[in-house]
Design brief:
The complex is a heterodimer of chains A (399) and B (214). Chain A is mainly α. Chain A has one domain. Helix content of chain A is 62%, strand content 0%. Chain A has helices spanning 2-13, 20-30, 49-79, 94-126, 134-143, 151-165, 179-190, 192-195, 220-225, 234-239, 251-263, 269-291, 302-306, 311-314, 318-325, 336-356, 364-398. The longest helix of chain A has 35 residues, at 364-398. Chain B has 214 residues and is an all-alpha fold. Chain B has one domain (20-205). In chain B, strands 1-2 form a two-stranded antiparallel sheet. The longest helix of chain B has 31 residues, at 128-158. The two termini of chain B are 37 Å apart. Classes of the chains: A mainly alpha (399), B mainly alpha (214).
Chain lengths: 399, 214
């Protein structure tokens, strides 16, 4: 109990001073606060914001560990292609882990230090408590960027994302856009050469470009957008032995994370399910267009349109976005009917953006951001529709 | 400022501080988003608007007693249109490449809300000298915001100022680029201009609490 006592003493010492929120945050981050609400009725629940956030982080840990191994694996496999013949045997090795940890952990640390730093500064300036909102964002950010993103770019993007995406709206719970995706979108538009192409997904590819032993690794969406046949098997895609952003490659682990989130009732199964349905619907439409022969083989959309509809679910970041970011309780639609519409349109538009805009191979980021903006509108109409329905019922009865 | 009485100097200075057309009245945003990717274009736009608004205010002010109020909007439009065409022609004659860069936006000064706004709100009710000062004051503040936004967008987006590479050469990798710095492509897109203006408004309001509305 020593640490708790000390933290508590430290907190009492700084009570009422400028730095109080910072110490309060440290105190409540590690332990349950020993204060209770003084007046009014309030809900008692074990699921406070901190617990919610920690559950999502637990669901993300497998993706992070897999991402660390995958970072090393993709690097060595790009140098020695024979490793790909037996992915499972060559995946969980020390070499992979050491190289992966060396490249991925700095991203995690930087994301947390910078993001929480901004949160602490704003809490002190605005004299409110530090919110736990960044805990999940800080874990999501390193998982959705390419492995070799320069650290200073990440710092700039995190500051931008937290300040413009969240703090200007009033902090955690008030933001319109998902902060992690705001950070990624900023990187994507600001530094496109570091966020797309065939040189950024494998560690070292950019640094070794132009040399005789140069390596490269294209994402599956990247190759399809250029009408190349991807070199990976469907099982590779499902288990995640493919190049991509750090933590989004393994559909298998994302499914486990999704099951965990649904079981703990943190993530909305309505959003996840309807997004999958939306993606399948759009995929089927495109497949139908190809079957009808309306699009010729030479067309730049052909390869992506011709991709069997359910493949879209296991390639790219669609699954990761649907499970971990579309379900963000702050930015998603709040009503149940709204969640169906919101999720469906995310899946639908992700696949549409993928196919129609080769410059943005991964559509799920833009689709989720777009639907974040529309979520309040959807909710508004759902609520209004409900009011109208009930009014009608009332009239029938009274008439 | 012996030249100007206290009331007159307020006309110039007030719009510079708390009555800024862009950040307080939120007028003239279109052009502020469209042409501020380059500092040079921002400066030329600022000067053009200053010229049009100052002269236009004087003209309207001189005519204010003879314009029938039913057709005053048309008269105002004709005055602005004439002045804008003059500015456009001058630019085409003396700075052709720049006028190509600004393309339609010089012509679109006609639709700049600040101009019609000052005609209606000020020039129709005040004498030519005061209208002149008011025109310069408002347009200068508009221009000031344009130049601030243009400065940051060009510096961070292209690494240049007025076309001079101040941060080093991105291709030869000198200066800042030698240590891995890269230009921020987002700065060249219009949404970033809106965000920069938003930040200016934020700074201004946190310095002057009176501006915060409930």
């Amino acid at each position: 109990m020593g640490l708790k006592q000390n933290l508590h003493k430290l907190k009492e010492k700084y009570k009422g001073t400028k730095m109080a929120p910072a110490f309060n945050a440290l105190h409540t981050f590690l332990y349950t606060p020993n204060e209770t609400t003084h007046s009014g009725s309030h809900v008692r629940s074990v699921d406070d914001l901190k617990r919610t956030m920690n559950t999502v982080i637990m669901a993300l840990i497998p993706c992070l560990i897999f991402g660390i191994f995958n970072a090393g694996y993709q690097h060595y496999a790009a140098i020695d292609a024979t490793l790909r013949l037996d992915p499972l045997g060559n995946f969980f090795t020390w070499d992979n882990f050491i190289l992966g940890a060396w490249t991925v952990l700095p991203l995690v640390i930087v994301s947390y230090v910078v993001g929480l730093g901004v949160e602490f500064i704003f809490a002190i300036i605005n004299k409110h408590e530090v919110e736990e909102g960044y805990l999940v964002t800080g874990m999501l950010v390193p998982l959705i960027v390419p492995i070799d993103i320069p650290i200073w770019m990440l710092i700039v993007a995190v500051i931008f994302g937290v300040v413009i995406g969240k703090e200007v709206f009033g902090g955690t719970g008030m933001n319109i856009l998902n902060p992690a995706l705001t950070i990624r979108a900023f990187l994507f538009f600001a530094y496109p050469t570091w966020m797309s192409g065939d040189k950024v997904w494998v560690h070292g590819a950019k640094a070794m470009a132009g040399q005789p032993d140069a390596i490269s690794g294209e994402t599956i969406l990247g190759s399809l957008a250029q009408n190349h046949e991807p070199i990976y098997s469907l099982w590779d895609m499902f288990w995640g032995f493919i190049p991509g952003s750090v933590g989004e490659t393994s559909t298998f682990l994302i499914l486990i994370g999704a099951a965990f989130l649904i079981f703990t009732k943190i993530g909305s199964w309505r959003i996840m399910l309807s997004a999958v349905v939306g993606a399948i619907a759009m995929g089927l439409i495109f497949n139908g267009v190809v079957d009808q022969g309306w699009i010729k083989e030479g067309s730049s959309f052909y390869a992506l349109m011709n991709e069997t509809y359910w493949h879209h679910l296991i390639i790219g970041g669609l699954a990761f976005g649907i499970v971990y970011m579309a379900t963000d309780p702050v930015t998603a639609a709040q009503t149940n009917k709204g969640k169906w519409i919101y999720g469906f349109l995310i899946g639908f538009m992700s696949v549409m953006i993928r196919v129609f805009n080769p410059a943005y191979p991964e559509g799920v980021m833009l689709a989720i951001l777009l639907m974040n903006v529309f979520a309040p509108t959807i909710d508004h109409y759902v609520v209004q529709g409900n009011i109208k329905k009930r009014l009608k019922r009332l009239k029938v009865k009274t008439a | 400022m012996a030249l100007l009485s206290k009331k007159d100097s307020k006309l110039i200075l007030d719009p510079l501080a708390d009555n800024n057309p862009i950040t307080i009245q939120v007028l003239g945003i279109c052009s502020a988003l469209a042409i501020t990717a380059q500092l040079k274009a921002s400066i030329v736009m600022a000067i053009s608007v200053i010229a049009v608004l100052a002269v236009g205010n004087v003209v309207i002010s001189l005519m204010r007693n003879i314009i029938p109020s039913k057709i005053r909007i048309i008269v105002q439009l004709i005055v602005v249109a004439a002045l804008v065409i003059i500015v456009d022609q001058v630019l085409k004659a003396f700075a052709y490449t720049l006028s190509k860069e600004l393309s339609v936006f010089i012509g679109l000064i006609i639709t700049n809300c600040i101009i019609m706004g000052r005609f209606e709100a000020f020039a129709l009710g005040n004498g030519p000298w005061r209208s002149f000062l008011d025109g310069i004051g408002n347009a200068a503040r508009y221009g000031l915001i344009l130049v601030i936004v243009g400065f940051f967008r060009e510096l961070l987006g292209s690494g240049t100022l007025l076309g001079i590479q101040v941060l080093g050469d991105p291709i030869a990798k000198t200066g800042l680029y030698a240590i891995g710095y890269e230009n921020n492509g987002f700065m060249l897109l219009s949404p970033m201009a809106l965000i920069v203006i938003g930040i200016i408004i934020w700074v201004q309001r946190s310095r002057n609490k009176e501006l915060i509305e409930e």
